[in-house]
Amino acid sequence: MTFLPKPKLHHPLLATNALGLTRRDYEGAISTLCAGCGHDSISAAIVQACFELELPPHRIAKLSGIGCSSKTPTYFLGAAHGFNSVHGRMPSVLTGANLANRDLVYLGVSGDGDSASIGLGQFAHSIRRGVNMTYIVENNGVYGLTKGQFSATSDKGSKAKKGTINTDEPIDLVAMALQLGATFVGRSFSGDKTQLVPLIKAALLHPSAAFIDCISPCVAFNNHEGSTKSFDFVRAHNEAVNRLDVIVGRDRIEAEYEPGTAVDVTQHDGTVLRLRKLHPEHDPTDRVSAMNYLQERKAAGEIVTGLIFLDPDPADLHDHLGTSADPLNAMGDADLCPGAAMLERVNAAYR
Amino acid sequence: MKVTELRSPDHFHKVVDCQHACPAHTPVPEYIRLIAAGRYTDAYMVNWRSNVFPGILGRTCDRPCEPACRRGRVEEEPVAICRLKRVAADHKDDIRGRLPPPAEQRNGRRIACIGGGPASLTVARDLAPLGYEVVVFDDNAKAGGMIRTQIPRFRLPEEVIDEEVGYVLGLGVATRLNRRVDSLKAVLDEGFDAVFVGTGAPRGRDLDIPGRQEAAANIHIGIEWLSSVSFGHIKRVGRRVVVLGGGNTAMDCCRSARRLGGEEVTVVVRSGFDEMKASPWEKEDAMHEGIPILNFMVPKAFTHEGGKLTGVVFEKVAPQRDAEGRRQLLPTGEADVHIPCDDVLVAIGQENAFPWIERDIGLEFGRNGLPKLDATTHQSTLPRVFFGGDAAFGPKNIIWAVAHGHEAAVSIDLFCRGEDPRLRPPPETSLVSQKMGIHEWSYDNDVSIDLRFKVPMRAPEVALKDIHTEVELGFSLDTALREAERCLNCDVQTVFAPKLCIECDACADICPVDCITFTEDGEEAELRTRLRAPAINKQQDLYIGEGLKTGRVMVKDEDVCLHCGMCAERCPTGAWDMQKFLLETAKPRAHACSRV
Ligand SMILES: Cc1cc2nc3c(=O)[nH]c(=O)nc-3n(C[C@H](O)[C@H](O)[C@H](O)COP(=O)(O)OP(=O)(O)OC[C@H]3O[C@@H](n4cnc5c(N)ncnc54)[C@H](O)[C@@H]3O)c2cc1C
Ligand SMILES: Cc1ncc(C[n+]2csc(CCOP(=O)(O)OP(=O)(O)O)c2C)c(N)n1
Ligand code: SF4
Ligand code: SF4
Ligand code: SF4
Ligand SMILES: [Mg+2]
Fold this sequence. Notes:
The structure holds two protein chains of two kinds.
Chain A: H1 38-52, E1 60-64, H2 68-71, E2 81-84, H3 90-100, E3 105-111, H4 112-118, H5 120-128, E4 133-139, E5 142-143, E6 149-150, H6 173-179, E7 184-189, H7 193-205, E8 209-215, H8 231-237, E9 238-240, E10 242-247, E11 262-266, E12 272-277, H9 287-299, E13 303-310, H10 317-321, H11 333-336, H12 340-349
Parallel strand pairs in A: 1-2, 1-3, 3-4, 4-8, 7-8, 9-13
Antiparallel strand pairs in A: 5-6, 7-13, 10-12, 11-12
Helix pairs in contact in A: 1-7, 3-5, 4-5
Chain B: H1 10-15, H2 17-21, H3 28-36, H4 40-51, H5 54-60, H6 65-68, H7 71-74, H8 81-91, E1 110-114, H9 118-127, E2 133-137, H10 146-149, H11 158-169, E3 174-176, H12 184-189, E4 194-197, E5 203-204, E6 219-221, H13 222-230, E7 240-244, H14 248-259, E8 264-268, H15 280-288, E9 293-294, E10 297-305, E11 308-321, E12 327-331, E13 337-340, E14 343-346, E15 350-351, E16 385-387, H16 390-393, H17 398-416, E17 428-433, E18 435-437, E19 440-441, H18 460-463, H19 477-484, E20 492-496, H20 506-510, E21 516-519, H21 524-527, E22 542-545, E23 553-557, H22 566-570, E24 576-584
Parallel strand pairs in B: 1-2, 1-4, 2-3, 4-16, 6-14, 7-8, 7-14, 8-9
Antiparallel strand pairs in B: 5-15, 10-11, 11-12, 11-13, 17-24, 18-19, 20-24, 21-23, 22-23
Helix pairs in contact in B: 3-4, 3-8, 3-19, 4-8, 5-8, 9-17, 13-14
The structure holds flavin-adenine dinucleotide, thiamine diphosphate (TPP), iron/sulfur cluster (SF4) (3 copies) and magnesium ion.
The site of one iron/sulfur cluster has 12 residues of chain A, from loops.
């Protein structure tokens, strides 16, 4: 834990993006998490992704629940909007905010306890509704903030710091997200930013529910021998299915790949996601095969990471509901309060 | 790439940019911290041990440390290292009790130091407390060399010279003053065990152009004129003065002239403004006193009337590349310029001269007129004779003279013990953890964002009235504290223990200047291109740690590290630690100042 703020001085060659901002301008307050916490690396990856995408920080809304993971929005994007909800309720607050103003970029940050235990229902419904958001679970297999109890994502047979063995079946949030109809599903590891940063960028650009399960070791309570969420275990069992390049508008990368080894998926907004396949039998655009592949590799003891499933042309909650494109805060009184006659007409429609 | 070797002090020594650049390797951050803590006497003694003349150097040093200072690379300007030294000197208590006592017993060896400048005085200071009988010879009435005879009083008050020269002579050093040495052979014949020659570069270059003879009465050689001013032989100068030359002597000449009745003083230089030898701050100070500096003008002739100087004619030149690409100053073809004046001061360089050294005693000279010396030991071809200061390798400055003095003292000590002066003793070093708690260090790791503070100056109206009035006032203690806090503590090193590292990235993520990268190993040139921030400053080393679980290496670019300790604070396993590296150059065997 650090008391002093991070020094303002930066590298003399620190790059600026099209907005004239440096990566440092996307940082937040100094972290109060334990030194070495995987969550801090995810914050750094979010900072990097938003800088590279040249997002204006004040057009981002970051929302979270309760937990060490849910504390992290304080430590990145200091200039963004933020909401720290009660435990497990981030998805409904985010859904409400998104319905009121679809012009912001929504980033939901949660933990495995926050999303797989108390907030499991909230998680499920926000995904199946197709809320346009990036939903990141910082998954350490424990309740870090309350001192290391097993969480619902903890693997059966994995050992707690004091020696207890977990006897419950784990919830695989990636499998659930696939089953619930998420149109972007990825998994990554806090210790691999080359994989994580492009994944977050692609998720932020995705126009519907994008879910990332990011394994993030808890150095205080779950980084020991016998844990399946430790740095060593994840490094030893990590199987990346692909590598992702996010190619936005002008910065086209003209790299050559062996035919069949790279797929370009063009998004609705023109962004190209270039997937360099590492496992030829995995097809990221076929939900059923992705689900099968995931189960198969899991049975083989591997942790599958990368962009696992992608629907390049998804619809979102606003499309489903046919809601107004204008945010509520941009509407006048007449539109917001159309009056008794209109209410009468609406009511009549239900009679 | 080769793993960084930490058993030798080289890597960490180089990280302390200021200390590394200081010829005497003064532990700069160590004394700056002491100043910040209000421990001025301790700060003074740290300096005194390394550079012998803290009060003098705190006003006059050429400060090679400052262009090297890391702060200049991460912000705009370096720490005011030199002027902080003066703060220690101005605010210390009586230090006499902390000086080494005169040797209780003589060791029977006699050393002659010819010339009483900083080089000789350093040799005397290092050797006298060890029991050597040191005799300093100088042709002036007081020791000090050019510090006393050349540097004008408005930059360096005489009391400061008296005080610091006094500390050295008080160590039981004998002097033979007011007498020029005319024969080295005669000195050797007195049976000295070793002789140190620190006679400086006493001759000012002349300018042999038409009119030189005819107008001689009003044409003065800069360094001779300055010493006459210093001794009070010259008290006035003409109303209009032209100073020829662009070095520090020219700056002292013009500023002195302004104080002795020169109302229109002009400096005229052959080269461009940026190529002038004078330090930037000396040029600034001169211009601040209303002295214009004219560049790219070559003196062609002195004009005179009835045996009296009337002015100088200059040809205008411009820099051009010749066929081989060499830069040359060629005439522009524009009309010559005549600058009328009453006096000319010629400050176009200094030369060494050794007419008093016999050429048949085995002491060889090179073609440049300088003695042939071993560059490290300063020993001449006559084994008993050593050189240092301006007399050794040509004119430099005070801090180089001091550094030479230390090296020569080590050599003389080894020589007198019958040992080989080329086998140099290593410096004394230590590396000590500064950790006090999880986020507590025994140094102030908060990085100040203050810009460099300016030293207050006396108003020109007052300063120009009297040549003895010191023009710089020195930092106030409040400003000194804030300036001291700009120092980044580069001696508090980031020390990495690969065995403890779990590669969690916490250090790389937190580092405010993107110093740290975990990556695949490679050749240095290629490695430098794929770090978190480009490592383009090849003067600065990469710190490589290997033995990580993933087989990668930890690469730290030392270039712009703020020594903020954030990496060590965020490290969950203590793989990073902040450790203070202290290096003191070797002094003659029994530590000269062991009581300090
Ligand atoms: C005008 C001017 C301004 C300067 N300003 C600065 C400055 O601001 N900062 C800085 O760092 N440096 C400055 N310097 C340079 C600095 O003064 C010298 O580099 C330094 O003093 C050299 O020290 P030294 O011990 O080698 O010899 P010196 O200081 O030159 O001392 C040599 C002494 O030996 C005496 N001597 C010579 N021959 C004999 C002999 N045969 N017998 C007896 N005695 C003899 C000389 O009279 C003199 O006293 C300046 C120089 C000049 C000319
Ligand atoms: C309604 C409610 N129930 C229980 C808690 C206690 N509590 C705080 S954090 C936490 C678990 C957090 O776990 P996770 O989301 O995995 O976050 P981590 O700290 O591991 O990052 C719990 C149960 C609470 N704050 N509020
Ligand atoms: S308890 Fe665990 S999850 Fe929480 S900050 Fe510490 S390391 Fe991170
Ligand atoms: S910042 Fe301080 S320690 Fe670092 S080079 Fe400058 S003066 Fe020396
Ligand atoms: S001390 Fe550590 S964190 Fe601070 S600048 Fe240096 S390497 Fe970076
Ligand atoms: Mg958790």
